[in-house]
């Protein structure tokens, strides 16, 4: 397969790739590294990639092509990306400067939490729309947020995990019982 590329909207590169069982051909999003990937829970053809240094890339064709989207991202060092399960046009990303929210499927971003440390993992409550949890690196705090459109309020849960390295973060239906 020949790797192809083209110039997309706003001059961002569109990459063409094909993924198969144990095989990746073509080119993936260009970035220092890919930190995370998330699939739309309602549309398996739409995916997002958290890229370190290049923002968020989105595919609407199952990963064949990728387009970079960083409008509004004050920090393009993206560590994680997570869509709302029942409202996947609302997508969260964690960066080295905080949490950003897109309400248009990942095209444009607004900062909803500024941090001096990187946000490494975000989990969306599976039942309570708008409740998210975020884990940071540096001070190792876990945050709980209530997000309504692009306005949000966050509270640190007082969980100090010094120099912890976070992988995936999960929130279950009874997550609220433990942080009251």
Write the layout of secondary structure elements.
Elements: E1 5-7, E2 13-20, E3 23-26, E4 34-39, E5 47-51, E6 55-59, E7 65-69, E8 78-83, E9 91-95, E10 98-102, E11 110-114, E12 118-124, E13 131-137, E14 142-148, E15 151-156
Antiparallel strand pairs: 1-2, 2-3, 2-7, 4-5, 5-6, 6-7, 8-9, 9-10, 10-11, 12-13, 13-14, 14-15
Main features:
180 residues, mainly beta, seven-stranded antiparallel sheet, four-stranded antiparallel sheet, 0% helix, disordered N terminus, disordered C terminus
Overall structural class, as computed from helix and strand content, comes to mainly beta
Discrete helix count: 0
Total strands: the figure is 15
**Main sheet record:** 7 strands, antiparallel
Rg is: 16 Å
Q: Runs with pLDDT <50, length 5+?
A: 1-15, 161-167, 175-180
Strand fraction equals over 45%
Shape: globular
For the terminal residues, how far apart are their CA atoms? 55 Å
Helix amount, in percent?
Answer: under 10%
Average pLDDT? 75
Q: How are helices and strands ordered from N to C?
A: EEEEEEEEEEEEEEE
């Amino acid at each position: 397969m020949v790797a192809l590329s083209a110039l997309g909207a706003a001059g961002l590169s569109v990459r063409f790739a094909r993924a198969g069982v144990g095989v990746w051909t073509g080119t993936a999003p260009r970035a220092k590294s890919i930190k995370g990937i998330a699939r739309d829970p309602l549309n398996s053809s739409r995916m997002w990639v958290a890229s370190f240094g290049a923002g968020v890339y989105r595919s609407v064709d199952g990963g064949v092509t990728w387009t970079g989207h960083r409008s509004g991202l004050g920090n393009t060092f993206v560590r994680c990306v997570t869509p709302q399960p029942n409202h996947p046009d609302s997508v969260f990303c964690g960066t080295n400067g905080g949490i950003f929210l897109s309400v248009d499927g990942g095209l444009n971003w607004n900062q909803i939490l500024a941090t001096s440390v990187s946000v490494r993992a975000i989990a969306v409550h599976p039942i309570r729309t708008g409740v998210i949890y975020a884990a940071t690196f540096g001070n190792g705090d876990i945050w709980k947020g209530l997000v309504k459109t692009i306005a949000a309020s966050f509270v640190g849960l007082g969980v100090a995990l010094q120099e912890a390295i976070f992988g995936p973060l999960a929130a279950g239906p009874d997550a609220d019982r433990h942080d009251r």
